[in-house]
Amino acid sequence: MDDLDREELDIHRLLSAVKPEPLPLGFRDGVMQRVRGTGAPAVWEWLIAAAFALPGMAYLTWRLALNGGEVVTSLNAILTAAAGVDLTGSTDIAIDGLAVMSFALVGVASVLAAHAMLRGSASHGMIAR
Amino acid sequence: MLPAGRAALTRTDQEIVRRCLSGDADAYADLVERYGGRVYNVALRITHDPDAAHDCAQDAFIRAYRALHQYDPAYPFGPWMFRITTNASLNFIQRGRGREITVEELPEDPEPLEAGPELSAVRKEDLDEVLAAMAELPPAYRAALTLRHMQELSYQEVADTLGIPLGTVKTHLHRARAALRSKLEARRERH
Description:
Chain A is mostly helical. Chain A contains four helices and no strands. In chain A, helix 3 (43-83) crosses helix 4. In chain B, helix 3 (28-47) packs across helix 5. The longest helix of chain B is centred in the last third of the chain and has 25 residues, at 166-190. The A-B interface holds A 1, 3, 7-24, 27-28, 30-32, 34-36, 38-39, 122-129 and B 25-26, 28-29, 32-33, 36-38, 40-41, 44, 50, 54, 57-58, 61-63, 65-67, 70, 83-84, 87, 90-91, 115, 119-120, 122-123, 127, 130-131, 134, 145-146, 148-150, 152, 154-155, 163, 173-174, 177, 180-181.
C-alpha cells in the first residue's frame, strides 16, 4: 500500500496484524455444488410447466365454457348452505376424471413455475444496494 | 504444455471469467479458491459472526457467478467481488440482526487520540481486543476499515467497492479510525 497517510499508520499496523481466519472446511465445494445446481438457466422448468399447464387449462376452460352455468349455480347453492341461510337445499357437482387430472396437472405446473420464478429472482439478486 | 493444475494457477481472473461465461462452470472453482479466504474474512469482519460470514461469503460467490456477465474485465476482479460480499454482509445485518449502531449515531468527529505509545501498547495486547472494539463500530465503518486496512485496498478501490464517493470514503475512514481509537481507549480503561 503506497497511499497510506501518516494519520492512519497506527491503525493500519494494528488491523493488518489481525490474522485472517481460515476458510471453513468444504466452503469451496459448497459453493461449487450450488453453482452447478443452480447455475443452469431455468428455461426447461418453464417449458415443462407450460407443457403440464396448457392442456389442463385448455380442458378446464372448455368445460367451464360448456357447463359454466351449472358450476355457478352449484357454487351459489354451496355458499348458501355454508352461510346457513338455507339448510334444506341440495346441490350436486359432477367432476369428471379429466377435470381432476387437469387440476392436478395445473397444480404441478404451478409448483414448477413457482420454483423457476424463485430461481430467477434469486439470480437477479442485488449487486449494488 | 502446462499440467492442468498449474495452468489453472497461471490463468488470470479475466480468463477464468471468460471460461465460466462460455459454459465451463468448473473453472469458477479457481476463483473461489483464489478469493474464498479474503471474501470470508471481509464478511466475518463486517458481520462479526462466523456462521453468518460463511453464509454471506457463499451467497456472494453465488451472486457473483450469476452476475458474471455484468463484470467488466477491464477492472480487477477482487474489488468487484468484495463489493458483492460487502453488500451481502451489510444487507444481512440490515435484515434485522438486532440493534446495530449507525454511522449517524456516532459523533461527527470523535475526540482525536494521538497515535503514540498508548496505541502501540494496545497492539501488544490480545488482538481479540481490537476485533471486539471494531465490532462496536457501525457496520459501514467496519466495512471501510476492513477493506482499507485488512484487505489493503486503495481509497479509490474502497470507494468503488462501497459504491460511495472518494471523499465520503476518506471521511468515513477518518471517523472510523478515530472511533476505533476511542473504543480501544475505553476498553483499556475498563480493564
